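Hi there,

I know you've been waiting on this one. I reran it after we fixed the sequence typo, so this is the corrected version. Both the input and the resulting structure follow.
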Amino acid sequence: MSMQMKSVMIFDPKDTDEQTNAEWAKWWQDNKSAVGDKAVPGVKETQEYLRRYA
C-alpha cells in the first residue's frame, strides 16, 4: 500500500506543538492536490483493505 502513497507525514513525539503545527502546515501546502486525488483511498476502501490484509 505504501508504494501507492504520494506522501506520508511522520510526527516526532519529541517535537513541540509549534513544530508539529509548522510541519503539518508545510505538508498541507505541498500536498493539497493529493488530498482530493482519486488515488487516495476513501473510508470504505481503507476499511476493505484493512479487513483483507489484517
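Quick highlight: The first helix runs from residue 17 to 30.

Best,
R. S.
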